[in-house]
Amino acid sequence: MNQTPALALDPRxxxxxxxxxxxxxxxxxxxxxxxxxxxxxxxxxxxxTVRLHLGGMVDKIAPTRKGIPDRLVLLPGGRMYLxxxxxxxxxxxxxxxxxxxxAAALGTTVHVLSGRAGIDAWVRARAEDYVGKDRxxxxxxxxxxx
Length: 146
What we know:
Layout: H1 6-9, H2 11-14, H3 28-36, H4 39-54, E1 57-60, E2 71-75, E3 79-86, H5 94-105, E4 110-114, H6 115-129
Parallel strand pairs: 3-4
Antiparallel strand pairs: 1-2, 2-3
């Protein structure tokens, strides 16, 4: 009696999947890095960092027009920024590039932040721009709330 090996009967093996169709294991440290760079994770980090370190707020902009930035950041002292968040592998689309060029022609910069490091660097730069901070709570500007 001619027997076919069990592996050949496995449909995953017939498709030529790696590891004989078995799930590949990803080390925990790698999973943490991958998760930390997901856009949803970056967004949560951005909202939290702006609120805690700059005393500001972030609003998600409704995509009413192709290429419009994702977020509007409002900071103490009337400072406003248009921000686009991207993962480390993310790139701006052609429509976004066109919008950024048109905004620049009007004197407005759209800040494109890539990954957690980009977010942290941008927040540090905004914190250094603003001098009149309350020493007891560095995220809150003096005299901006009643």
